[in-house]
Amino acid sequence: MSKSTAQIRQAFLNFFADKGHQKVSSSSLVPSDDPTLLFTNAGMNQFKDVFLGTEQRKYTRATSSQRCVRAGGKHNDLENVGYTARHHTFFEMLGNFSFGDYFKQQAIAYAWTFLTQELKLPKEKLLVTIYSEDDEAFDIWHNEIGVPKEKIIRIATSDNFWSMGDTGPCGPCSEIFYDHGEHIWGGPPGTPEEDGDRFIEIWNLVFMQFNRQANGDMLPLPKPSIDTGMGLERISAILQNVHSNYEIDIFQNLIKATAEIVGTSSLEDKSLRVVADHIRSCSFLISDGVMPSNEGRGYVLRRIIRRAVRHGNKLGAKGVFFYKLVAALATEMGDAYPELNEQRAVIEKVLRVEEEQFSRTLERGMLILNDALSELEGKVVPGELVFKLYDTYGFPADLTNDVAREKGLSIDEEGFEQAMAEQRKRAQKASNFDLDYNEQLRSDLESVFVGYELEQNTAQIKEIFVQ
Ligand code: ATP
Ligand code: MG
Ligand code: MG
Ligand code: MG
Q: To 5 degrees, how large is the angle CA 94–CA 97–CA 102?
């Protein structure tokens, strides 16, 4: 019998715990002390200071299953959702970490043993990439592990060289790919067809071995470290004999629940995948304290919710539907993440209010957009229209882009940005006017107070005379 996603998560953590790694809980999606990071997007985030050497822990090896969101910010997979078999806005990253303890050789051996012995993946389906200059990694993969030369691909781009920032810890990576078979379109890494779904990256091993200086010098780190990340949903797909993350247990159940709620029977619809993806990121973001708003993290959340609502609408949902999926999500993931049950009412409420608010303008906005698209000449939606939909109907630009893309069109992002800039200028003027207005209001109020005092005085005088 194939393993459930929950069993795979457990198998990973236990494998590394048996090898002396401390099990560490997932940290929040909202990074606690890193304002440069929009959302937690990798297992290593919570260990950043340990890698930098500014924080000490009682252990030198750790393992975790980290919840991650890649929407907005530097890593943005929002546009990939619904289009590739392997990207989510929310996913779990399994990782093992060494803080100056074991290094390259051991990290490669652990990864290989876990995949081929613990999970029993056929070796011939795996291939690896290394950084072009990393001969040491080549020797380990080839001479010690026994991977044939033609299955070790040298990559010269930053895809295989990781760095924390412009300076500081950095080093080459080695990634493990799985071949889902000839019947699926796509080519191995490093080829023009690599963005297909045949060869899927499952595990990234980062070898932190240099400390990049401001002048570009790469000094060797005194204690090289290891950071790895494997997508739980991607490894589940392999073990459950399916070729898309959206066909694994958790997603199939969420997709079925969505279909039932919106009242559709065709389980293949792309929109179902999008909604099933988005309920995870939205619920986990809310449970980690993010609230929909017009800026920063809250605006990313709002954009994801609105996108989900639009896709639900497209599927034929009658009335508010999105919040109803929280129950199905809690059933799927509540054991691993009890907060989904504890906070279910809050999550549902926030999603419901947000959807109700957006529903009021969604239909009208869609009519206007569809009308405009049917009359459109050329392939680019004008920035003015994208702006109008944003300003009047609450359509985030990425939502309009999503609709346009479905029809083979794109949006004029520059024109949209320009319209936004003009709007900001107008708002600035309006707030100057506000100042004058406030000034006026203050003097009006003052005269009211003066009048009030006078009246009081008159009243007092009257009282005196009456006595
Ligand atoms: P890809 O090239 O497929 O976009 P990546 O190189 O951006 O992946 P890494 O930053 O190396 O990914 O993250 C480590 C692992 O996390 C990946 O090997 C993959 O298994 C998983 N992963 C990354 N992004 C996503 C995503 N959006 N959804 C699901 N899993 C992901
Ligand atoms: Mg990526
Ligand atoms: Mg990659
Ligand atoms: Mg990668």
A: 140
- Ligand 1 pocket member 203 (CB < 6 A): yes
Structure tokens at 123: 């070796």
* 234-249 per-position pLDDT tens digit: 999 999 999 999 999 9
The yes/no answer to whether this complex scores an ipTM above 0.95 is yes
Residue bearing the CA closest to ligand 1, atom 14: 229
Q: What residue type is assigned to position 267 of the chain?
A: L
d(C-alpha 198, C-alpha 244), whole Å: 10
Cα 201 to ligand 4 centre (Å): 7
Q: For ligand 1, pick from 8, 64, 91 the residue to mutate: most ligand atoms within 8 Å of CB.
A: 91
Residue 171 sits at the vertex; the CA angle it makes with 169 and 173, to the nearest 5 degrees, is 135
Tell me which long-range contacts 309-312 makes (C-beta under 8 A, separation of at least 24). 309/355, 309/358, 309/359, 309/362, 310/362, 310/366, 310/399, 310/402, 310/403, 311/271, 311/274, 311/275, 311/278, 312/258, 312/262, 312/271, 312/275
* Other beta carbons less than 10 A from residue 125's beta carbon: 15
Structure tokens at 453: 């005092």
What are 192-230's pLDDT values in tens digits?
A: 999 999 999 999 999 999 999 999 999 998 889 999 999
Strand partners, 64: 95
- Is the CB of 229 inside a 6 Å radius of any atom of ligand 1? yes
Going by C-alpha positions, the residue among 342, 343, 330 that lies closest to residue 254 is 330
CA angle 333, 317, 269 (to 5 degrees): 70
Ligand 1 nearest-atom number relative to CA 80: 27
pTM for the full model? Answer: 0.90
Ligand number nearest CA of 231 is 1
Q: Ligand 1 in contact with 233 (CB < 6 A)? A: yes
Quick check: 93 and 201 in contact, CB under 8 A?
Answer: no
87 ligand 1 Cβ < 6 A: yes
